[in-house]
């Protein structure tokens, strides 16, 4: 009888988890439908985050948590107006605030899913900087250093931002992305995370981004002229280094 009761409880839990995962998959598909530049982004960010986590010695449970955080990190954009997400020009201060709010929207959408709560906390802080600047989820405050998992997610997200075509800029090279991550190491990014990422991705032999060198200015000009797919190896996707309202689309 005890075994049967335990089995029924486990089966009920499994069905609940399956329903929750199905709902989450629906959120991700809805986001991809809302913004074509999202397509493939969450999967790549999860892949890069997993690579970094393995390089930094994460165990299986830590990697699973990191993976889920990566998969949900942009779900909050479902509550951001489509015209803001797709805008090619500089965002206005109000639009910038609307974009920043997506880290809180992910909490609103997913905090009721109990098994995702640790992942939601990581995801909501992926725009918090290593030095405490940036913008944080409700679980943190200005000046707080984000968790290691959030710092990994930040680097992976920004790398994919730079090496993928977006609404306002075509893809940049992998070398450019590495250089930018290193240039902002110690401020926006955790230097140890950056070096782990560079090491593991270089060792893998995999290549992302534009196959030819292109400046940031030229990349933006091409996007404005509708040449957004000219140098993109990967599927278009959002996410970015946060330099200000002009780069606040992801």
Automatic annotation (TrEMBL):
Disordered, as annotated region:
219-250
- HD-GYP domain: residues covered: 16-213
Task: Kindly give the SMART domains that the UniProt entry links to this protein.
Answer: HDc
Instruction: Report the InterPro entries cross-referenced here.
Output: HD/PDEase_dom (IPR003607), HD_GYP_dom (IPR037522)
Matches recorded under CDD domains: HDc (cd00077)
PANTHER family annotated for this entry? CYCLIC DI-GMP PHOSPHODIESTERASE PA4108-RELATED
Q: What is this protein called?
A: HD-GYP domain-containing protein
The species is hydrothermal vent metagenome
The organism's taxonomic lineage, starting at the top: unclassified sequences, metagenomes, ecological metagenomes
């Amino acid at each position: 009888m005890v075994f049967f009761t335990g089995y029924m409880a486990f089966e009920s839990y499994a069905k609940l988890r399956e329903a929750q995962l199905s709902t989450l998959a629906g959120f991700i598909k809805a986001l991809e439908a809302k913004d074509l530049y999202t397509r493939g982004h969450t999967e790549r960010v999860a892949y890069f985050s997993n690579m970094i986590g393995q390089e930094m010695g994460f165990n299986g449970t830590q990697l699973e948590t990191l993976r889920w955080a990566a998969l949900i990190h942009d779900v909050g954009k479902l509550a951001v107006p489509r015209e803001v997400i797709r805008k090619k020009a500089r965002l206005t201060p109000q639009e910038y605030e609307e974009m920043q709010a997506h880290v809180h929207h992910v909490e609103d959408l997913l905090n009721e899913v109990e098994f995702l709560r640790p992942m939601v906390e990581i995801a909501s802080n992926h725009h918090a900087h290593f030095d405490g600047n940036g913008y944080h989820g409700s679980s943190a405050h200005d000046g707080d250093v984000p968790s290691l998992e959030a710092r990994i997610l930040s680097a992976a997200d920004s790398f994919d931002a730079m090496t993928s075509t977006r609404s306002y800029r075509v893809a940049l090279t992998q070398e450019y992305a590495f250089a930018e991550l290193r240039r902002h190491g110690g401020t926006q990014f955790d230097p140890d995370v950056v070096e782990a990422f560079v090491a593991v991705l270089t060792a893998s032999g995999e290549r992302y981004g534009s196959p030819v060198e292109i400046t940031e200015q030229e990349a933006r000009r091409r996007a404005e002229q509708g040449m957004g797919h000219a140098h993109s190896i990967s599927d278009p996707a959002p996410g970015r280094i946060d330099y200000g309202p002009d780069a606040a689309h992801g």
